[in-house]
Amino acid sequence: MAAGSGVSLRIDSSKVPLLTGAIDCVRAGLVPGGLKNNREFAECLVGYSQNIPEEIRTILFDPQTAGGLLLSVARSDAARLVEALRHADVPAAEIGEVLPPGKPLIAVV
Q1: Which stretches does DSSP call E strand in 24-92?
Q2: What global pTM score does this model have?
Q3: CA angle 22, 29, 25 (to 5 degrees)
Q4: Measured between alpha carbons, how far is 62 from 78 in angstroms, rounded to an integer?
């Protein structure tokens, strides 16, 4: 998404919703092969703050949710969109921001 749009992203890992038990699965080594493939392909584009635990670094590459459920809107519309989605019983969260092009392409804080 970022590479194709010529921007960079800042993801606040504390705002990324996780399914119950997901961290336990990662800790137990129960990760899909697609996660490993995603990580091998894209991790060179990601920079992490030092305080990001390995489990979170891993789970952010999960192919069951990684990227396919992201969307981007103008900052001025973000809160209204999240509210509208939640009102329609669609889980939604604002997890980051779009920034001018830079390195890393995706910063996880």
Answers
A1: 46-48
A2: 0.89
A3: 15
A4: 24
